């Protein structure tokens, strides 16, 4: 999309950085020519954006005042030029265009502008300065037609001729515009709008709002909080009663000759009925009345080139309503109008369920559309589209943008079509292509996509009755050794490789038993591995080597694998199309030199070794991939590689036939290779090399590992690219066929060396990676909040999920981590149990079956039989119907047999004990984890219920559930069952590289360069993926950080608001990243002294955290501290103390009394009491802080000394107060006494409510706890990722100056910096009067560095920000928080 039309600006007011932020800010993305120029920061020209489209929507509130265009932009830098546009109706607007914009981009922008959003069929005419005109084709670039840089050019929209396709598209567009269902308004936007309207009505309502806000309720009653997650749907604005296809359609042949294409019946709000003719030139009202077509134009001459234009003529109410719809859309944030190509599904649905109303248009669309995404008769050739896009040139940035955009769009469209097709397959709407085969082997082709099933072999592994045949339905065993089969088929049919199905000539001759033996490849694990392998080869991007588009869809207990189809593979005998690999488990291995050269090139990038294997006849064959992979030439002469289940080597910790698909993760391979390379190239000692590799691993994970964690840490030191690794250490290459049943050629020494390398990688995982991961968990360097973020953290470290049980045994001493890991294992085990129930449930029983399972899982269901485990179910249910089901399999079709229809409910006899028995058995088998008996109680948590629903795709009603009752759920509470999808959508590597470079610049303190790099990355992402992408959200977060560093809090809010909207749409309303986005917004708003708005956002943060992790999590405690400081800033000390005390109780419970984060709470309480002039209590709490820090960090640590300085400060102030009392300053003394009594009363209440709190305060030193096991890392306070980057730069500069080694990974004791943030923050509030003990605060007016510390006060940034960042903060006053407190203290001291 290009520029911004002047006529389409949002109505939000733009204000300066020091004033309230506009509630609906436009969404500007500063183009590469604009860089921030904070005072005292040298301005350098940003890198050029070569080609491409940049979104520039002008808004004064978005760009910092200090941002100035560079006078001499870099060569080739992107510039925007104003081009006027004349619409079909004669209106004029102006676009900001770049010469590199394509015509299709310009049309997309016109589709989004309110003045032109309803024009869909037109030609663009370009008028140049010399008077010539050019008609623009969609895929032309403007620069190919004319030079718009010299000015004088204009565009004109000219009505084009409709055809049958374009007129239907026009009608669909009108229906879209009239519905607001596509508008996703964020709660943050609504809160800002409310705040803006309230400001005009009343001032000083802050106290009321603060009293109403009580986030602790969310912690106490998270089940009740379910009702608050979903915002009420926006009220629809009705413009017309109905618009439907007329029953006069299709037009008779004699009318087609006059241009009639379609007839439409319209009923207006006034009650008038019209029959409208859509012709090739226009829309007009005809004279039809009743049941006879009269095609003549009415006497009034009601005609227009668009349907909207015609409706505006015939209905005044439509005209008024349509204007309201456009105004509503314009008032929303522009990103809220953008549709996500890969939308996230919610596990909660509206309650009460909205009324389902008649909608003829909706009914039409559902009936007219075929089963899929395309209209009848229009099927896309997905494979040809995908491979053609991959063949696009990509030599320069502009070409890469066009190629990336095309690939992303085609892949997203494929995933959408695959999901709908898979649902059709499972619901038996699509017939198989091989109906005469047993159902075990049915395959499906729909919309040019190949579908087949994968088997849940993990669950079958613990099934009670293993029967290696088709008779046992879902519970048949797939664990038959493939070596026992004769005449092995080309590949297993269930595995969805339609290709190989026709590759083997003997496939049809193989017995069902032989085919079943092969079906072990079609397990869940192999499907997952195949997807990972496909992604790996995609990223390797070898010219001439092609992959298939692939998606995995889990729905109704089935796993369907969808793939694009290799051309010609389903027609005729293609036995000669196999060029590489084997279809019979290595008995015959094909080889082709040309194919091998391409595979070998990919192997180098994937760290795979060329090696020799022996086929069944003992002939040596040289391969660069696994034996079972297949290289096939399609009828399009392209070389395809598939069956990529083992792109990484086997996991040597899981050896054996039953673990044949247990492979190492690509992240671990990259990390291991990098560690080995470092060891060899630097000749370091082994421990040093391992330590560096650990730091490397740790630093790759932090941001994603814990939702907002690690803005700089997350990817700053990510593992080197494969190419870099190749250069570093080409000799570290793995043989993928070791520890398999295939025979390896070569000397025994070579084979032993290959096996030893794989074993070393497995040992590296067990002895280096996992202990480091556990250490980071204990020190809170990594802090996952829910199952998804835990999985992401494991994967980013290269740890497979099968190690969950092992890691759980290493973190038993931390309650929140034990709960998180055990809950994840339980939920993953329960997922397989409920899938088995869903596979056996007929259509009419799905809702009741899910509700019954949830009641068994959460509640207490007692049945007549106690043998409720799924194992018994499997052996019992089929007994009366074994014969009728003998041909059935796991496909889901078996539930449609007459026999199963007569069966009683397959779930009714299940009990809680039986379900939990199955869960425990699965957890022990899969994860080697003994589920404790008390786990059933821990399952009664909203966070566990949420995790399970998300993994299975269940949507439940958002009402308050009594999770302690025996049956908390009813069948009507189950609102939907949605497919859960895994896909291979490509990522934008150029944008990620720019983000990495931007983080380096930010760490160095060159904010202007960082800003330009992040802006360029965001611009790239917008052009390739659109704004609705998690990488775009990361860009916005970094841009907010840079702007905050530069002192532009208002600009930071605009960027943070973008991140919040994208996270809500791409990750989910209650994802931990979304929660932290709200927390960051709150702290930014607080920086502008909008405490009321900040607290509302904090309320949302606590609500989301309570749903994601439950109340017991260190992040929740850190958020409570932030809330307390906001109340403290608003002089509401009673509430602030209550929140601080709650945070202290949580930290002591979760982390232990000796953890550094507990010391942070004590320090915050000391500061709060200091603000109330209760210095005795301050001294008491600061003494606790000092004792903990001295014990954990040592008395000589700077943080311990800082605490000692605080103690001296409080003692000095107490002496001053006593001196004032002795001098007889009665007024002040009485005021202090009153404050003291108020605080004392509250303090007594706290102590009475929590006796442990009193004991903790009485202790002179904290008794030894488990803190020592947690490492020196300091708990991170989550929230705004601000101030952090510049701090890192300073720390590194000073370290480098002292000759210290500076590492990219998180330092072992970065806790000190987090504590220092708190110390400094509070220092700004309370230390103005004692300059002898503390350093003066420096304001953030663009100063690059803070001065040296005075008297031991740290120079780090002053703000307890929800420090998700891994960077250490060093120097910027927190907006509002520190400054306001400092002002209050100064005024207090003066008085």
Automatic annotation (TrEMBL):
Biased composition (Basic and acidic residues): 485-498
Keywords annotated in UniProt: Cytoplasm, RNA-binding
GO MF annotation: an example: RNA binding
Main location: cytoplasm
InterPro entries per the UniProt record, alphabetical: CLU-central, CLU_dom, CLU_N, CLU_prot, GSKIP_dom_sf, TPR-like_helical_dom_sf
Compositionally biased intervals (Low complexity): 499-511
Transmembrane stretches, start-end: none
Residues covered by the Clu domain: 354-655
Domain of life: Eukaryota
Record has Ribonucleoprotein as a keyword: no
CDD domains: CLU-central
GO BP annotation list: mitochondrion organization
Family: Belongs to the CLU family.
Record protein name field: Clustered mitochondria protein homolog
Source organism: Digitaria exilis
């Amino acid at each position: 999309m290009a520029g911004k039309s002047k006529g389409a600006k949002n109505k939000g007011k733009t204000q300066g950085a020091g004033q309230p932020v506009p509630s609906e800010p436009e969404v500007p993305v500063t183009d590469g020519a604009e860089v921030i120029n904070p005072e005292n920061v040298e301005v350098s020209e940003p890198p050029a954006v070569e080609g491409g489209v940049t979104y520039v929507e002008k808004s004064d509130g978005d760009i910092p005042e200090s941002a100035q265009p560079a006078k001499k932009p870099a060569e080739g830098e992107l510039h925007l030029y104003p081009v006027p546009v004349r619409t079909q109706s004669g209106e004029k607007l102006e676009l900001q265009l770049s010469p590199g914009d394509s015509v299709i981009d310009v049309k997309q922008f016109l589709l989004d502008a309110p003045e032109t959003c309803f024009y869909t069929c037109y030609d663009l005419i370009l008028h140049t300065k010399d008077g010539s005109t050019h008609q623009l084709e969609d895929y032309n670039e403007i620069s190919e037609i004319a030079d718009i840089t010299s000015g004088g050019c204009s565009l004109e929209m000219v009505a084009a001729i409709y055809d049958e396709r374009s007129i239907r598209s026009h009608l669909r567009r009108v229906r879209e515009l009239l519905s607001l269902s596509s508008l996703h308004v964020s709660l943050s936007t609504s809160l800002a709008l409310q705040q803006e309207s309230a400001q005009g009505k009343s001032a000083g309502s802050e106290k009321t709002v603060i009293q109403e806000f009580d986030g602790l309720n969310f912690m106490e009653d998270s089940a009740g909080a379910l009702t608050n997650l979903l915002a009420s749907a926006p009220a629809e604005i009705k413009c017309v009663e109905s618009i439907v296809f007329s029953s006069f359609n299709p037009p008779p042949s004699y009318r087609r000759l006059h241009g009639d294409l379609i007839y439409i019946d319209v009923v207006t709000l006034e009650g008038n009925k019209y029959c409208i003719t859509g012709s090739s030139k226009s829309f007009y009202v005809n004279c039809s009345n009743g049941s006879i077509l009269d095609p003549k134009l009415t006497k009034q001459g009601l005609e227009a080139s668009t349907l909207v234009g015609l409706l505006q003529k015939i209905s005044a109410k439509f005209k008024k309503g349509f204007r309201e719809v456009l105004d509503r859309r314009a008032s929303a944030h522009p990103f809220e109008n953008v549709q996500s190509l890969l939308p996230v599904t919610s596990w909660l649905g509206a309650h009460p369920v909205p009324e389902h109303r008649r909608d003829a248009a909706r009914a039409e669309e559902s009936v007219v559309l075929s089963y899929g995404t395309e209209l009848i008769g229009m099927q896309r050739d997905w494979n040809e589209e995908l491979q053609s896009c991959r063949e696009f040139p990509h030599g320069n940035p502009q070409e890469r943008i066009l190629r990336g955009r095309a690939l992303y769009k085609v892949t997203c469209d494929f995933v959408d079509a695959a999901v709908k097709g898979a649902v059709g397959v499972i619901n038996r709407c699509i017939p198989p292509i091989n109906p005469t085969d047993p159902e075990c082997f049915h395959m499906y082709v729909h919309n040019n996509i190949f579908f087949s099933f994968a088997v849940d072999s993990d669950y079958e592994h613990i099934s009670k009755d293993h029967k290696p045949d088709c008779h046992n339905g879902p519970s048949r065993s797939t664990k038959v050794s493939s070596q026992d089969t004769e005449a092995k088929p080309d590949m297993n049919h269930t595995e969805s490789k339609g290709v190989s199905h026709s590759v083997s000539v003997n496939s049809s001759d193989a017995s069902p038993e032989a085919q079943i033996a092969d079906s072990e490849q079609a397990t869940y694990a192999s499907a997952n591995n195949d997807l990972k392998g496909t992604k790996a080869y995609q990223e390797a991007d070898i010219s001439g080597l092609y992959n298939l588009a692939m998606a995995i869809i889990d729905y109704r207990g089935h796993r369907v694998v969808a793939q694009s189809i290799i051309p010609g593979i389903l027609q005729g005998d293609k036995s000669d199309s196999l060029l590489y690999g084997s279809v019979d488990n290595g008995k015959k291995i094909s080889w082709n030199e040309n194919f091998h050269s391409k595979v070998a090139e990919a192997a180098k990038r994937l760290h795979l070794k060329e090696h020799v294997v022996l086929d069944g006849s003992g002939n040596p064959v040289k391969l660069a991939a696994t034996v079972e992979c297949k290289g096939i030439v399609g009828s399009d002469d392209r070389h395809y590689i598939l069956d990529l289940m083992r792109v990484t080597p086997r996991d040597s910790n899981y050896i054996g036939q039953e673990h044949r698909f247990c492979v190492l993760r690509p992240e671990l391979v990259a990390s291991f290779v990098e560690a080995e390379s470092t060891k060899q190239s630097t000749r370091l000692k082994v421990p040093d090399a391992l330590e560096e590799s650990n730091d490397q691993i740790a630093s790759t994970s932090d941001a994603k590992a814990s939702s907002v964690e690690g803005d700089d840490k997350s990817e700053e030191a990510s593992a080197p690219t494969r190419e870099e690794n190749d250069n570093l250490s080409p000799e570290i290459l793995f043989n993928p066929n070791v520890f398999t049943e295939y025979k390896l050629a070569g000397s025994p020494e070579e084979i032993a060396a290959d096996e030893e390398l794989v074993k070393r990688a497995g040992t590296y995982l067990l002895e280096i990676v996992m202990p480091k991961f556990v250490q980071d968990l204990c020190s809170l360097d990594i802090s996952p909040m829910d199952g998804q973020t835990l999985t992401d953290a494991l994967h980013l470290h290269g740890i497979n999920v099968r190690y969950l049980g092992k890691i759980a045994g290493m973190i038993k001493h931390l309650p929140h981590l034990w709960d998180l890991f055990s809950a994840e294992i339980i939920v993953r085990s329960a997922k397989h149990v409920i899938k088995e129930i869903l596979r056996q449930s007929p259509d009419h029983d799905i809702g009741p079956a899910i509700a019954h399972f949830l009641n068994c899982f959460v509640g207490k269901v007692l049945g007549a039989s106690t043998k409720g485990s799924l194992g018994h179910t499997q052996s019992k249910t089929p007994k009366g119907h074994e014969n009728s089901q003998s041909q059935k399999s796991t496909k889901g079709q078996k539930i449609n047999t007459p026999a199963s229809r007569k069966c009683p409910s397959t779930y009714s006899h299940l009990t809680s004990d039986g379900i939990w028995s199955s869960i425990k058995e699965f957890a022990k088998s899969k994860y080697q984890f003994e589920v404790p008996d008390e786990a059933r109680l821990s399952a009664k948590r909203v966070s566990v219920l949420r995790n399970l629903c998300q993994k299975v795709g269940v949507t439940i009603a958002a009402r308050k559930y009594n999770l302690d009752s025996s049956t908390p759920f009813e069948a009507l509470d189950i609102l939907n069952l949605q497919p859960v999808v895994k896909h291979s959508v490509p990522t934008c590597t150029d944008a990620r590289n720019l983000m990495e470079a931007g983080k380096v610049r930010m760490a160095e303190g060159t904010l202007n360069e960082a800003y330009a790099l992040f802006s360029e990355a965001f611009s790239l992402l917008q052009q390739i993926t659109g704004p609705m992408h998690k990488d775009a959200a990361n860009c916005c977060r970094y841009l907010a950080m840079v702007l905050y560093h530069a002192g532009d809090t208002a600009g930071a809010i605009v960027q943070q608001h973008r991140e919040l909207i994208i996270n809500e749409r791409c990750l989910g309303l209650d994802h931990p990243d979304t929660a932290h986005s709200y927390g960051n917004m709150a702290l930014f708003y607080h920086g502008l002294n909008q405490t009321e708005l900040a607290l509302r956002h904090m309320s949302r943060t606590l609500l989301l955290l309570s749903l994601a992790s439950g109340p017991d999590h260190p992040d929740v405690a850190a958020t409570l501290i932030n809330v307390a400081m906001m109340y403290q800033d608003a002089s509401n000390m009673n509430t602030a103390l209550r929140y601080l005390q709650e945070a202290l109780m949580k930290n002591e419970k979760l982390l232990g009394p000796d953890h550094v984060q507990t010391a942070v709470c004590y320090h915050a309480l000391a500061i709060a009491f200091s603000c109330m002039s209760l210095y005795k209590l301050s001294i008491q709490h600061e003494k606790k802080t000092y004792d903990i820090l001295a014990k954990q960090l040592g008395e000589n640590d700077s943080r311990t000394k800082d605490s000692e300085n605080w103690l001296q400060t409080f003692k000095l102030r107490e002496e001053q107060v006593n001196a004032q009392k002795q001098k007889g300053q009665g007024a002040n003394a009485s005021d202090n006494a009153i404050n003291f009594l108020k605080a004392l009363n509250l303090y007594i209440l706290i102590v009475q409510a929590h006796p442990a709190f009193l004991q903790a305060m009485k202790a002179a030193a904290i008794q030894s706890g488990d803190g020592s096991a947690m490492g020196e890392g300091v708990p991170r306070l989550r929230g705004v990722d601000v101030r952090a980057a510049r701090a890192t730069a300073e720390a590194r500069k000073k370290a480098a100056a002292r000759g210290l080694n500076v590492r990219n990974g998180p330092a072992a004791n970065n806790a000190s910096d987090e504590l220092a943030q708190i110390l400094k923050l509070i220092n700004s509030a309370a230390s103005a009067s004692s300059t002898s003990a503390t350093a003066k605060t420096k304001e953030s007016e663009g100063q690059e560095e803070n001065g040296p510390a005075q008297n031991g006060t740290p120079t780090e940034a002053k703000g307890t920000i929800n420090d998700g960042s891994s960077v250490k903060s060093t120097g910027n006053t927190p907006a509002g928080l520190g400054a306001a407190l400092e002002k209050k203290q100064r005024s207090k001291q003066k008085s």
